[in-house]
Amino acid sequence: MSLIYHITTKTDWADAQSKGFYEAPALKEEGFIHCCEAAQVDHIKSKYYTQTADLVKLIIDTEKLKSQLVFEWSPSLEETFPHIYGPIDMDAVVGVEELT
Question: What is the b/e burial string over 36-68, where b = at least 16 CB atoms within 10 angstroms of the residue's CB?
Fold first, then answer.
């Protein structure tokens, strides 16, 4: 099992649970959902989410994803990140952890 992570709010996660799938705003804006690997979570949280409360980290099993997963280079961060090109189906989310 290979895991990747996505940071979102509790509200957005609750909405996803009622819909049966998760879509981040970036999916409509950029065409994919931004994710990260375990070693990147803290850096992404501190860079992009310092003003956001009630965060959760979705733990995603890449083998259960139905949408395409692509690892792509980010020139602005100078690292490779996993991007999901489509919604995240609920059975691919194998865990949810609160972020403080």
Answer: bbeebbeebbeeeeeeeeebbbbbbeeeebebe
SS3 5: strand
Question: For the residues 68-77, what does the mean pLDDT come to?
Answer: 95
Q: For domain 3-99, which architecture applies? A: Alpha-Beta Barrel (3.20)
Residue 89: the pLDDT is: 96
Tens-digit pLDDT profile for residues 61-71: 999 999 999 99
User: Shortest CA distance to 48 belongs to which of 92, 86, 76, 7?
Assistant: 7
Q: Within a 13 Å sphere around the CA of 4, how many CA atoms are in the beta-carbon half?
A: 19
Three-state secondary-structure class, residue 53: coil
Tokens standing for residue 42: 């803290």
